[in-house]
């Protein structure tokens, strides 16, 4: 049995990994920790919210792909070490693209028995506007998805 655990360095992802490890260690299952590289784009400065890209001026700061990959590798390494410490065989996979698309596709290709993901306590209003990765994974994955609060 092999399970996919989505990690992003957040406390919610850490809880999902810990939950997966506690459930899977007695089963002798393996895990593949995955992280989807998607360079961060931030809007800095100013007090007014950005109404559109044309109005951002020089307030946009984009993370380089190299920085995003380095950040992802650190997250994956830490997760794989946690799994090893818990006695669970783990592999790490760096994915590229939108997590709601690449994680279910990876799980399908790998024949995963399930996906574990952390829940990000987004407000209902915000979640209604942009959705959440956990919700989208539940809707898109062809295998069971465990969302850990």
UniProtKB/TrEMBL annotation:
| All residue ranges annotated as the UspA domain in the record | 2-149
Q: Which InterPro entries match?
A: Rossmann-like_a/b/a_fold (IPR014729), Universal_stress_UspA (IPR006015), UspA (IPR006016)
What highest taxon heads this organism's lineage? Archaea
**Position of the signal peptide:** none
Gene3D superfamilies per the record? HUPs (3.40.50.620)
A Pfam cross-reference name: Usp
Name the protein family: Belongs to the universal stress protein A family.
Supply the name of the protein. Universal stress protein
What organism does the record attribute this protein to? Haloferax chudinovii
